[in-house]
Amino acid sequence: MAQPGGSRPVTVSDVQRLVQRKDEIEAQIKACYELLEGQKGVGMNEPLVDAEGFPRDDIDLYQVRTARHNIICLQNDHKALMKQVEEALHQLHAREKEKHAKDEAEALAEAMSQNQSLPQAFAKVNAVTPGSPASLSGLQVDDEIVEFGSVNVNNFQNLQNIATVVQHSEGRPLSVTVIRSGKKVHVGLTPKRWAGKGLLGCNIIPLQR
């Protein structure tokens, strides 16, 4: 595993290897304790001499001493390994957090550049009657109009401009461009007589800029 300041960043595989090694050490410690248990349950602290100070002859002293020594060494290894696992997980988490923040920043930058590249709207749809030509064309409430036939932000003066285009385009499709949910949408709108009032069936208000 790469150490802090090393050339290679920590990976999930590194952490998995460390955890596998931890499990192996824990299995070895368990085996050593079982060996001590088999030696009259001497454990780690039971005396290895009898009441008169002589080495006990009811247990394998060499095995007991070796097992105790191994347990101490393995516990130290386990402690060091747990620290490595903790550091590796911390590095992974920090890197994931950094990546998430970077992704968010990139998404924000993209959204901002998209907004900057959107054309300027001059009017807004604030009502659409169901079944009307406007409704059938797909025009929606809150659509911001950037082009309505020949009318755009550069030549728009008032709503009469739109009314004139509508009157001259009765029965003919008009190209209408709107901004909807931050995106540019093209709508084919054909002004025509219908059951309701006017030729569109929607209400348009000028945008105050």
Describe this structure in words.
This protein is of the alpha+beta class and 209 residues long. The chain is built from four helices and six strands, in the order ααβαββαβββ. Helix 1 runs antiparallel to helix 2. The longest helix is centred in the middle third of the chain and has 57 residues. The radius of gyration is 39 Å and the shape is rod-shaped. The model has no long low-confidence stretch (mean pLDDT 90).
Gist of the model:
The protein has 209 residues and is α+β, with helices and mostly antiparallel strands. It has helices spanning 12-38, 61-117, 133-137, 159-168, and strands at 123-128, 144-148, 151-152, 174-180, 183-189, 202-206. InterPro entries: Nas2_N (IPR040815), PDZ (IPR001478), PDZ_6 (IPR041489), PDZ_sf (IPR036034), PSMD9 (IPR035269).
